Every structure is written in C-alpha cells, then in structure tokens.
Design the sequence.
C-alpha cells in the first residue's frame, strides 16, 4: 500500500487481491491505476501497476489463443465447493441434481469445456457449487480448485482417486464421492467402504447414485458440515427475524464481525446490541462488540 494513498485506492487494492481470474485482476488493476496517488512518489507505483497489467493482459491473450478460454464472472461466495473428476464420472449429473444448474449431460468424452456454476440451497444457506472440466482434459482449471473451500472428488473406481489426488493442490476440505453405486452389489459396497476407511482415513467419503438418488441428502449434509461456518441472523428492532438469509461467518466470530460484514465502519454507529440464541444467557441479552457468537444466533442492532 503506497504512502498517503486515498481510501478509494486502498479499497480497490483489496478488491484486486480478492480477484481470482485474469479478467477480474485486469479490471481491478485498471481501477488501481486510475486511483493511484498523483504526487511524484506515486510514479513508481503506477509503473509497477502498468507492468503487472500488461502481464495479465498477455496471459489472457495466450489463453484465448490456446483455446482454453477464461471463465468470467465467478465471484467466490461464502461457501464454495468444486466438483473434480475424470470424464464421464457423473460430474454433470451431480451438479444438476444438487443445484439449479442445467449442464449438458452426455456419454461423449470431455463434454464439459468450461466451469458450470450452480447454487445449492441447504439449511437456509446457499452453497456455490462449480463443476469444472475433466481433470485429464486441456480445459481443466486448477486455479478454481486451489481457492475452493471444499473439493468433491467424484470417482467410479479407486484408481481414479489416486490420479485426482496427485493433481489437486489445495488447503480446502476434500470429500471422496463414489458415483454410480447403484451398479455395485451390497457386498461390493461393504468392501469398498472398508477400503476407504483403512486406506484413506483423512478423507470423508460417501457412496451415491444420481440415478436412484441414493445418499444425496447425506451428501448435502456432509458438504454443508465441511465448511465449518456459523449462521448468524439479524433483525431490526420491533420486527421478526428473517430466517431465510443468514450471514455466513467463521467460528468464534464476534458481534463486531457481523456489523462490519453489513457495512465497513458500521460498528462505530452502534449504540446497543441484543442477541437471542445459543450464545445468549437469556433472550434479548445486551452484549458488547467482543461477544463471541454461536451457530444460529440472532443479532439486533440499534444505531446512534
């Protein structure tokens, strides 16, 4: 951050660091250049920003020439999961079943050539789910995988799992999803579960069938639990709580975190906070900004 930078520049810089695609970074860099300090000390900064801008523009041109293309408009939501797997593993069928997405489902290889985005509604929350092209295809996008919170590794046999694991580099939670379990006998399912428990202890796993909708509810729950987030509801004084749109926060978040997520600087305008729910000693308890919240708490603010 440059010395004497305008708050608008600082905000633009924050947007740049959150950008996940070359096109987003180009857009944010242009904004940073337009808002960079006009004094002499800002000349070097502008040169650095323009150099960085040219780099991303060059990468974008190369990507388009290679035919891989760039997926635009993927803004990461509070909870994001990516479906990773080989061609014809059932990725498209799964995202179609879990979300509002409507991908092309075909037995042809490499049918998916760009990410497909859908939203899964579960436990009053919305989870962003992305199906990316097959891991062995030229369209595979490892960048989206790297930044996702949870990876659903969809497989139809254990050999595929090792290949997928070798290509994934992420700090996100990983869940093994064995697809097309309807073609297995009960004995084959039992042996498969025993193998997964013994050889892949650090992974959550589940056997599903999109055809018969087997274990789909259980998969939704595993996916939701994998994020480890808490849901916080807000209400206005004298009004009912809207339980349809909770805020999604990290565990151990406090009242100030809720206020700042509503609007940066909003916590300075609050004169009183009341809470209801698991972290309160009684309904409507008055608390301070440092009060730690729990899942399903309700927060009410009164401003100055």
Sequence:
């Amino acid at each position: 951050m440059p010395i004497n930078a305008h708050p608008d520049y600082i905000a633009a810089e924050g947007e740049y660091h959150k950008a996940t695609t070359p096109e987003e970074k180009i857009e944010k860099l242009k904004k940073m250049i337009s808002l960079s300090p006009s004094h002499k000390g800002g000349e070097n900064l502008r040169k650095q920003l323009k150099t960085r801008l040219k780099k991303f523009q060059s990468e974008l041109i190369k990507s388009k020439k290679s035919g891989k293309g760039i997926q635009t408009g993927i803004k990461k939501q509070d909870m994001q999961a990516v479906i990773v797997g080989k061609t014809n593993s059932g990725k498209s069928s799964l995202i179609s079943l879990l979300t509002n997405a409507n991908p092309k489902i075909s037995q042809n290889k490499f049918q998916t050539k760009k990410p497909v985005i859908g939203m899964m509604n579960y436990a009053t929350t919305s989870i962003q789910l992305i199906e990316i092209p097959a891991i062995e295809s030229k369209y595979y996008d490892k960048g989206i995988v790297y930044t996702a919170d949870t990876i659903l590794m969809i497989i139809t046999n254990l050999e595929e799992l090792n290949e997928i694991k070798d290509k994934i580099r992420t700090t996100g939670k990983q869940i093994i999803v064995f697809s097309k379990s309807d073609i297995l006998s009960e004995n084959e399912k039992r042996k498969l579960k025993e193998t997964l428990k013994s050889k892949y202890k650090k992974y959550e796993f589940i056997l599903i069938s999109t055809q018969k909708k087997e274990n789909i509810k259980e998969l939704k729950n595993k996916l939701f639990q994998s994020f480890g987030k808490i849901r916080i509801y807000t209400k206005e004084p004298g009004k009912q709580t809207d339980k349809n749109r909770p805020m999604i926060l990290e565990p151990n978040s406090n009242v100030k975190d809720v206020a700042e997520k509503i609007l940066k600087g909003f916590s300075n305008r609050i004169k009183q906070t009341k809470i209801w729910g698991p972290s309160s000693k009684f309904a409507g308890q008055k608390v301070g900004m440092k009060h730690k919240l729990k899942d399903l708490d309700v927060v009410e603010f009164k401003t100055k």
Summary: The domain at 230-303 is CATH 3.10.20.30 (Ubiquitin-like (UB roll)). The first helix runs from residue 7 to 18. Confidence is low (pLDDT under 50) at residues 67-72.
